[in-house]
Write a structure and sequence with these properties.
By secondary structure, this protein is an all-alpha fold. 72% of the residues lie in helices and 0% in strands. The chain contains 11 helices and no strands.
Length: 232
């Protein structure tokens, strides 16, 4: 059953009154109404997160956005409002309803999105995907969506060939002789360098011990060569 979300204008109005109402009683009433809305929608949001986790579908835009927000607050679930500052109640209400409004916050919606994504990916990369099961294809697409890999692919105007190459390497390292975790760790190191660069725009690259783009390419080239030798 679809969740009927409270109109965003209602939430915004309650927040405005709760923070700037002319009388204390008006502010209190508005804050209590905001808490009631939050309590109702929080329960369903947390229930949906548990359902996605139970089905192994705890990823994708809706879940990841919610999880990232919760992680910044040291939590794994949305929290009910009582005893918290009004600004936090307001943000929690918006975040919970944002999650609930997303189609991929439901198991059905997530499965439909995965099916469509797999079909589109297969159409674009027929050779890469012809022997892959849906589960294998989903694992690889999740790998492509990780920050380090995503940033790496942005260096290429048309990343199709790079995706194909990474697909071959991913398959090889997932085989009995390989280890996909090593490949993931490589891109995690590269992602750490990019974050360091954002925080230290004027510092020389030599001050950071992580992988630059050039070093990443060298490491990947060695992995490709190693994979080619094993296939001979």
């Amino acid at each position: 059953m679809a969740v009927v979300l409270t109109d965003i204008n209602v939430i915004n109005h309650l927040y405005d009154v709760a923070t700037g109402g002319r009388s204390k009683s008006a502010r209190t009433r508005a804050e209590r109404k905001l808490e009631a809305i939050l309590d109702k929608e929080i329960h369903r949001a947390n229930q949906r997160m548990r359902e996605l986790e139970k089905q192994g579908l705890d990823y994708g835009p809706a879940y990841d956005t919610a999880a990232e927000y919760l992680e910044t607050h040291g939590r794994k679930r949305f929290s009910k409002a009582k005893g918290r500052p009004i600004a936090e109640k307001y943000e929690e209400a918006l975040r919970a309803r944002q999650f609930l409004a997303a189609r991929t916050s439901t198991v059905k919606g997530q499965r439909e999105a995965i099916k469509k994504r797999n079909e589109t990916f297969r159409e674009r990369f027929p050779e890469l995907t012809k022997d892959k099961s849906d589960d294998e294809l989903e694992d690889f697409q999740r790998f492509l969506g990780t920050p380090g890999v995503d940033d790496y692919l942005k260096y290429f105007y048309d990343s199709g060939e790079e995706v194909e190459a990474l697909g071959e390497l991913f398959d090889d390292m997932a085989s009995e002789d390989g280890n996909v975790d090593k490949l993931k760790e490589l891109f995690s190191e590269y992602d750490a360098f990019l974050k360091w660069r954002e925080e230290n725009p004027g510092a020389p690259t030599s001050e950071h011990e992580g992988l630059t783009f050039g070093e990443l390419r060298e490491r990947l080239d060695r992995l490709y060569e190693s994979a080619a030798k094993r296939r001979r």
